[in-house]
Amino acid sequence: MATFETITVSKLAELDAQNGVELIDVRTPVEFREVHATKAVNVPLDELNPTAVMRSRQQTGNHPLYVICRSGNRSGKACQKFVDAGFANVVNVEGGTTAWDAAGLPVERGKRAISLERQVRICAGLIAFVGSALALATGNVYWAGIPAFIGAGLTFAGVTDTCGMGMILAKMPWNRCGGGTCSA
Question: Which residues are catalytic?
Answer without folding.
Answer: 69
